[in-house]
Amino acid sequence: MTSQRTRDRLIQRLRERGIEDDAVLKVMRATPRHIFLDEALAHRAYEDSSLPIGFQQTLSQPYIVARMTELLLASGPKSRVLEVGTGSGYQTAILAQLVERVFSVERIRPLQEKARERLRHLRLHNVHLRHADGGMGWPQRGPFDAILSAAAPEVVPQDLLDQLDIGGRLVIPIGKQNGQQFLVVYDKTENGVVEQQIEPVTFVPLLGGVVA
């Protein structure tokens, strides 16, 4: 279930799908994805598929985690990254091994508490967690040189763009849950925001409010 051979097969599938960043692939090979799932689903951890984690949320498909991380890092090294939607903590753990500091917000407290324990288990101490409405970001800790969202708003939140530093990059799915969603990259320049549509995706919606 958790053998190195099983993980290597997943990494090979990611390469075949076009993931090229060796640093991203190395971290994903080394990170135990099975600990981010309930025991009943742990045997499926190294499939290239999204899996449920409760509260109508999912653990993102490994390809999507790799693709979003690769896109985030493609514009250069990152020191302060905001993650919208901690979820299981898996994407958080991948980011934490590739950037200096991660600031992650999650609206569902039970998910956040589980993620906190997993990150502590992995000794990833450069992550700061907050229980809050993710669409609002974390303005007190901004500006950020990159933002990654694990949930899809129908339009890009201005609050997130405002918290990007000049030269910063936002990677986010955009669109309605039952309609067409696209992974989109926004680069903030001195002259405004440049938008690049990447590929079709399927994500849970970015919802407001918090769950205790």
* Biggest β-sheet description: 7 strands, mixed
What is the SS-derived class? alpha/beta
Give, in spatial order, the strands making up the sheet with the most strands: 5-4-3-6-7-8-9
**How do the helices and strands follow one another from N- to C-terminus?**
HHEEHEHEHEEHEEE
Q: pLDDT under 50 segments (min length 5)?
A: none
| Shape category | globular
Amount of helix: 25-40%
**Treating each run of at least 4 consecutive H or I residues as one helix, how many helices?**
6
- Terminal CA distance: 33 Å
Commentary on this structure:
With 212 residues, the chain is an alpha/beta fold. 28% of the residues lie in helices and 28% in strands. The protein has 6 helices and 9 strands; from the N terminus they run ααββαβαβαββαβββ. It has a 7-stranded mixed β-sheet. A two-stranded antiparallel ribbon has the order 1-2. Helix 4 links the parallel strand 3 (80-84) and strand 4. The model has no long low-confidence stretch (mean pLDDT 93).
Write the layout of secondary structure elements.
Layout: H1 4-16, H2 22-30, E1 51-54, E2 57-59, H3 62-73, E3 80-84, H4 90-96, E4 101-106, H5 109-121, E5 127-131, E6 144-149, H6 158-162, E7 164-174, E8 181-189, E9 192-201
Parallel strand pairs: 3-4, 3-6, 4-5, 6-7
Antiparallel strand pairs: 1-2, 7-8, 8-9
